[in-house]
Design a protein that fits this description.
The longest helix is centred in the first third of the chain and has 7 residues, at 33-39. By secondary structure, the chain is mostly beta strands. The chain is built from one helix and 20 strands.
Length: 288
């Protein structure tokens, strides 16, 4: 006995095509399983005809031939629900699956399949539900501005006096997507739209004194007074370059401005050292 639970079909020819670019349109057609199993033979051709009217009596919009037993697409046996004592038993079906290539239209399409062994279950003209693009709908609110980011830096060392709370200047920009940074006020990043933001900064100091007890501080300051994050490093007696890498998330309002503020307790002036792609570096990005 032949099994048609997964019989392949292959695309043959395009007979008609409507005006417009072709699309890939998956289609299905429900037919009688017994008739298909009994009569369809490998090599038989089946005609897949698309219509724009629900009776499939008008002009054929698109037609393609498929061959039973070829490679590429499938046919599936369907088992209808059967209740206990139901008489007569429901008819078993076979669902033909393939992909057609009609021109794109904005109308509903209907499919009729003819050929040896194909007897439709239900309507001969069966509606197709996928693949035809409809008109573009109304555009919604674009939502909050998300592409808001800036990263600025200084290409030169910055001198910081002892016990002086100093806002660092960042004259150069790596990027600025929404005019957050103004070179005329190089210490500030100004918030263009209210939302949650990730703030980050990196810097390195000049070497601390050998066996010193120096303290180095970096902070994020909002609107010239409010500290939103702070980090303190101690030299711990090592003659190394103390570094800071600080980040935080904050809810900010349009018009707020942020600065990076530093201070130190060294016995003399200290420098923020300019290092490529690292120090001093200050950035912000709006979060979703």
């Amino acid at each position: 006995m032949r099994s048609f639970s997964r019989v392949s079909l292959v695309l043959a020819t395009v007979t008609f095509a409507m005006t417009g670019h072709a699309i890939d349109l998956p289609v299905t057609y429900l037919a009688d399983f017994k008739e298909f199993r009994r009569n369809a033979i490998a090599g038989d051709s089946l005609s897949f005809d698309l219509y724009t009217d629900d009776a499939c009596t008008g002009v054929v919009a698109h037609a393609e031939l498929k061959f039973v037993g070829g490679s590429g697409l499938t046919v599936e046996k369907t088992l209808p629900q059967k209740a206990k004592g139901q008489k007569p038993s429901p008819t078993k079906g076979v669902r033909l699956h393939t992909t057609l290539s009609p021109a794109a239209v904005a109308e509903q399409l209907y499919l009729k399949v003819t050929g040896t062994g194909v007897v439709a279950l239900g309507d001969e003209c069966q509606v197709q539900v996928a693949g035809i693009p409809g008109p573009e709908g109304p555009k919604g609110d674009p939502g909050p501005l998300l592409d808001v980011a800036a990263r600025v830096y200084s290409a030169n060392d910055i001198t910081v006096a002892r016990f002086s709370s100093q806002a660092l200047s960042f004259p150069e920009e790596r990027w600025d997507t929404a005019a957050l940074h103004d070179p005329a006020q190089p210490s500030r990043i100004v918030i263009p739209a209210s939302g949650n933001y990730l703030i980050y900064a990196n810097l390195a100091w000049s070497a601390a004194d050998l066996f010193g007890t120096e303290r180095f501080v970096m902070q994020f300051r909002v609107n010239g007074s409010q500290i939103t994050a702070s980090q303190t490093n101690n030299a711990d007696g090592l003659p190394l370059n103390p570094t800071h890498s600080l980040s935080t998330a904050a809810l900010l309002v349009a018009g707020d401005y942020l600065e990076v503020v530093v201070e130190h307790s060294a016995p003399s002036n200290r420098r923020i050292v300019a290092l490529p792609d690292y120090s001093p570096d200050f950035g912000i990005v709006r979060l979703p």
